[in-house]
Write a structure and sequence with these properties.
Mean pLDDT: 83
Shape: flat
Low-confidence stretches: 1-8
Amino acid sequence: MSAATATISEGEMAARTKPATPDEGSRLGIRLTLPAQILVLFISAFPLLMQLYISVTDWSPLSGIGWWNAWEMWNSFANYTDLVADTRFWSALQRTAIVMVVCVPAEFLLGLALATLFADDFPGKRIFYSILLMPMMVVPAVAGYMFFMLFQSGGPVNDILSKIVGTPVTIAWLSDPTLALIAVMIADIWQWTPLMFLILLAGLVGVPEDQMKAATLLGADPWQRFTTIVLPKMKTIIIIALAIRVIENFKIFDTLYIMTGGGPGVATETISVYIYKVTTQDLIWGYVAAIALAILIVLSIVAVFAMKRMARAREVPA
């Protein structure tokens, strides 16, 4: 074999064994994942587009036509104008906000206190840790039934109060508009404080130990170490925990519906319960789609705000 032939063969072999460029690898990755991406896009985009389509019509299952022909009942944006004037909707939204304003800070403070306690070792820590996480494992509907029984007029809560005050207590917790909402909030705090505790404990464990020791040597007391080192290092974790609970509070349903059904009257009717009733009882699906889109926009704004705060927390040095 001549030198030229050998040179050509070596050149061909080098070309064949030449590693792929980054652009070629990127194109290959896109081709391989494209079917899955299209499927995920369809799964997420189709229901949203369908909901938007239904929200500008008066269509319902009782209309006698399929949803694909809902355009025949086009009402422009009447559902959205009705939404603005719907006092029941705004009342449900206000109750949801009240539950959120009370429950989220209470869960955060309790979770942070417990996380601070469990950051140190103590006898029986694993046992108490397991017990503390148990409420989070309970099915919300089961938790609702538990608290429904606890807050009955002859239930354990009134029995305990009777022993404390020394006279029979027969408070109708779930029949009083104010007390019923308080009972629902107590149930929510009981069930979801462990989640807040778990998230905050993960952030607390990640605080650098050397910085804590250095601050101690410099004479910082526990409160100063907590405010100057722990909290700044946990900014991102705290934002995540608060954002999760704010969004989840908008979706509170199972526990509340089992306990009160939104009653007495509409005293505990949050936005999720209101949507459920309009969907299953009134069957005004076009209007329900408009409500759901409005709530989606609100929660999206909350999520975007939380992500921006997280980005700022990462940029600013602790």
